[in-house]
Amino acid sequence: MSALIDVKGLDKAFGGVNAVEGLSFSVDAGQIYSVIGPNGAGKTTLFNLITGIYTPTKGEIHLNGESVVGMEPNKLAERGMSRTFQQMQICMNMTALENVMLGRHLQLKSNLLTTLLRLPSLLKDEEDCRDHAIELMKFVGCGEYIESDASAMSYGALKRLEIARALAADPKVILLDEPAAGLNGTETAALEALIKKIAAQGITVVLVEHDMKLVMGISNRLLVLNYGRKLAEGTPEEIRNNPDVIAAYLGG
Amino acid sequence: MLNSFMQMRLKGLVILAVIILILPLFMSNPFHYDMATQIAIIAATVVGLNLLVGYAGQISLGHAGFFGIGAYFSAVMTSNYDWPPLPTLLLAAALVGVIAWIVGRPILKLKGHYLSMATLAVGFIIAIIINNEGWITGGPDGMPVPSFSVFGWELSSFNQYSFLGMEVNGYKAWYFFAGLLLLLAVWVAQNIIDSPIGRALRSVHGSEVAARVVGVDTARYKSLVFVISAVYASLMGSFYAHFTGFITPHIASFEHSIVLITMVVLGGMASTFGVILGAAVLKLLPQVLADFQELEMMMFGLILMLTMIFMPKGLLPTAQKLLKKKMSRKKVEEQA
Amino acid sequence: MFAEFIQYLFTGITIGATYALVALGFTLIYNASHVINFAQGEFLMIGGMATVSLLGMGFPMPVAIVLAVMLAGIIGVALQRFAIAPAKQADVVTLIIITIGASIFIRGIAQLVWGKEYHVMPNFSSDEPIRLFGAVLNSQSFWVLGIGALLVVALVLFFTRTLMGKAILATSMNKDAARLVGIRTQMVLMLAFMLSALLGSMAGVTVAPITFTAYDIGIMLGLKGFVAAALGGLGSGVGAVVGGLLLGVVEAMTAGYISSDYKDAVAFSMILLVLFFMPRGLFGSRVVERV
């Protein structure tokens, strides 16, 4: 099986400081792959590089065998890349449902004439899009917010809403940046179940997360970053027993 | 449920139509009709500008320039070259669309206040050309414009029309025509807002990063809405020229651009009916303040400042919020 | 030929120095608060007009100038304190409209106090023109350039040598961080408005003997300052100065050699060219967007 995401020799420097350095790893399709490491290890930078928000200083990124370095985020979205953010990016000027419908942007044909005159073909598409979005909101556990404005939702619900929006694009891979941050125990348990359900649909999940219990429980493989470099990579079992990781985490 | 927004849109359109129909009961002379017609045409312009400013969050400080091109293209071609008004007006709009695309496409790839600078510049250049090329535009003194006509049927404030057996004055006919234009402008604007294109536009304002990662080509959509809003301005500029029968370069000036964007912000960004209110208020305010003579300018500035400081969301959204609060309080009291 | 060129060049640099000061004012406020202050031009108007009327009351020139500039400074602080600060939650467009409202308000008051007619202000020193390479130069131009240069140097020293100046810089880079290290950001914003009012009014006072002054000169001068700031790259101090001088010179050359009708159009065409081909302006910074 070939890798879905393949990263080779990735470098990113901000004003002379390397946030990511010489990083290589690959994610196979269908996996739950987690990136862990202390604060400032370069996890979010890595996500921003993979999703095209930043352009790498050096290195290669392949998605499904195609080189995608320097590609705009919207081009990557067309190739099946989808993500959430550590600092949530919800459109507060829209309703919750519209946020999810926005996620289906690429699935909708937007023709200016049908839009201006609001022709029946548009209405049909919109109806389908809406139904799909409602389904997704229920899937992530936001069923009670279908009629709400995004600005009226709780923090935990917004985090799930962002996942629903990311799923709406029918992605091949979804990158979740600290989905459990700020959630309580019950919410985290629900999130764990949700991630498993997503993976069960055949969507590859890449995760940045601090909650070790969550990460160790659901990941197929893990990548440990420290100061922008790879400290270790392997199965949860291998990571747990890796002396470097233990040293870094226990401050040895 | 699905149609709550659709119902809201329809309700808005119906209310607007009713207002347009009822207003004549309160208007007694041609001057009132003239004012109301101007307000309707400007309001339609601002409804288009709101798509850009209110929904997509981009600032244009040169929309009067596009309004001016529409007006002067129609005026010059119909009076100097005897072109028929309707095709001329459409051609002007197409021309403006192309200009807006050429300007907007490279600029809207950038983030920040660049569109405001570019539109300011474009607006000024248009105004300067209109002012200086007096041989064709009449220069600062302005120029007359023939009345609007389609298929030999002429719409003029000075004509008499009979409609379903009723005698209708020309200025009244223009008023209803302008009302129809406004309704059409609102309908189209709402169609855009409540569509995949509209969602993409609003997401640019809400979170540009989110928009990009779900696949929205933000630069393309920003350019698109810029072109649409410019076309709105051009069309309404043409109608305005035909209606007033005489235009001066002031309609293309920076001051007029500022007035237009102020109408959007004052009435309520991202509120289609709010900006119509904004247009009406800003058109009528100088009439009211004219009685204060030399205090007029100072009071205008003061009112503008205070409204924006205390109602930063604009008139209509603020009023709606107050109303909602009051109603929910009432509900609580009733339940208690 | 050469004398003509020198004449235009000098005229351009003189008016350009004025633009540069206004552009610096824009830059200061933009960096500190991200507001484009469209009332900037009114500070020039206040500087010139207040000086003229204080001179009329019999004050000696230096006293009149100091008082006029102080008046502008107070108005700058008041603008921030009473118009911008209360609306700090508002959208950027709303803030811009507030500054436009403020500029109309200030202009309205000026019209009430000083009337609509043009006012003439005497030169700082002799009215005798100075001859250089065959060109005839207004002595006031030297004042404009000298004072402009002095102000720029003072500004540089202020930002690099004083705690206050560094506090403003820190606030413009990161407001939250500045607050964390104990900088009172509200004070800093007020200071930024005051400084830019001082710069604007000084420019207004020095250029008034050349251009005359009236209640409504602020609009165009303010806009030209904005154009200069945009040319240089909004937010860059060096850019503001270079942008101002460049704009002044190009304008004067266009007026001299091509057509004075289109001198304003050239200024605005320059903005478009810069935006198309070097979008960050001549000296604008490259900002990485953070997620």
From TrEMBL, chain A:
Residues 5-252 form the ABC transporter domain. One of its GO terms (molecular function) is L-isoleucine transmembrane transporter activity. One of its GO terms (biological process) is L-isoleucine import across plasma membrane. Pfam families: ABC_tran, BCA_ABC_TP_C. The keyword Transport applies. Keywords: ATP-binding, Nucleotide-binding, Transport. One of its GO terms (cellular component) is plasma membrane. The keyword Transport applies. This is Amino acid/amide ABC transporter ATP-binding protein 1, HAAT family.
Automatic annotation (TrEMBL), chain B:
It is a multi-pass membrane protein. The keyword Membrane applies. InterPro entries: ABC_transp_permease, LivM-like. Pfam families: BPD_transp_2 (PF02653). It is found in: Cell inner membrane. Its main location: membrane. GO terms for molecular function: branched-chain amino acid transmembrane transporter activity. GO terms for cellular component: plasma membrane. The chain crosses the membrane at residues 38-57, 64-83, 89-107, 114-131, 143-161, 173-193, 224-246, 258-285, 297-316. Keywords: Cell membrane, Membrane, Transmembrane, Transmembrane helix. It comes from the Bacteria. The keyword Transmembrane helix applies. This is Amino acid/amide ABC transporter membrane protein 2, HAAT family (TC 3.A.1.4.-).
Automatic annotation (TrEMBL), chain C:
The chain crosses the membrane at residues 6-30, 65-85, 92-114, 142-160, 181-200, 265-283. One of its GO terms (molecular function) is transmembrane transporter activity. One of its GO terms (biological process) is amino acid transport. It is a multi-pass membrane protein. Keywords: Amino-acid transport, Cell membrane, Membrane, Transmembrane, Transmembrane helix, Transport. It is found in: Cell inner membrane. Its main location: membrane. One of its GO terms (cellular component) is plasma membrane. Belongs to the binding-protein-dependent transport system permease family. LivHM subfamily. This is Amino acid/amide ABC transporter membrane protein 1, HAAT family. It comes from Marinospirillum alkaliphilum DSM 21637. The lineage of its organism: Bacteria, Pseudomonadati, Pseudomonadota, Gammaproteobacteria, Oceanospirillales.
